[in-house]
């Protein structure tokens, strides 16, 4: 058995809503109605916007890079990165808040491998963003210019 308490504030209409809701919950417990029946029983719109309570903000994640071991972790959880993803992330981490064009990144990180085009940088940035899950420092697009790493306060490069 599960006990649920619901507080509904207001006048006579609220009492009607509370009774209808209680009947609906009871019928769900008996298994004779579905969840979609509640708006019709209460006489309420199917969707009601309710502001979410303010969530406790989590502290920003920390990205830790260890160049000697070629490891990366966010909040202590190891990241699985390809060689180039790691190279790109480390390069941006060593040069935070500095904007680099795609051509510069190709030259400095990829060293102009014959098979690489400028979209290669975009793909690697996209993959890094996904792997960071929006945590840790952010790789920011500077429209018309290139990319930079923001949030250097959430980054540390470990010597060993």
Describe how the helices and strands are arranged.
Elements: H1 12-30, H2 38-42, E1 63-66, E2 71-74, E3 77-78, H3 83-94, H4 102-110, H5 118-132, E4 138-142, E5 146-150, E6 155-157
Helix pairs in contact: 3-4, 3-5, 4-5
Structure characterization notes:
The chain is α+β, with helices and mostly antiparallel strands. It has two domains: 1-50, no CATH class; 63-157, Orthogonal Bundle (Arc Repressor Mutant, subunit A). The chain is 38% helix and 14% strand. It contains five helices and six strands; from the N terminus they run ααβββαααβββ. It has helices spanning 12-30, 38-42, 83-94, 102-110, 118-132, and strands at residues 63-66, 71-74, 77-78, 138-142, 146-150, 155-157. The strands form two sheets. A four-stranded mixed beta sheet has the order 3-2-1-6, covered by helices on one side. A hairpin with a 3-residue loop joins β4 (138-142) and β5 (146-150). It is elongated and about 75 Å long. The model has no long low-confidence stretch (mean pLDDT 79).
Uncertain spans, ≥5 residues at pLDDT below 50?
none
DSSP strand count: 6
Examine the coordinates and then state which fold CATH places here, giving the name of the CATH topology of the largest domain: Arc Repressor Mutant, subunit A
Number of domains: 2
Which class of the largest domain in CATH terms?
Mainly Alpha
Sequence of strands across the biggest β-sheet: 3-2-1-6
* Rg calculated over all Cα atoms: 26 Å
Report strand %.
5-15%
CATH architecture label name of the largest domain: Orthogonal Bundle
Give helix % range: 25-40%
Major beta sheet, specifics?
A: 4 strands, mixed
The fourth-level CATH homologous superfamily of the largest domain is Winged helix-like DNA-binding domain superfamily/Winged helix DNA-binding domain
Summed over residues and divided by their number, the pLDDT gives a mean of 79
Count of helical regions: 5
The rounded distance between the terminal residues' Cα atoms is 55 Å
Indicate the overall shape: elongated
Order of helices and strands: HHEEEHHHEEE
Class from helix and strand fractions: alpha+beta
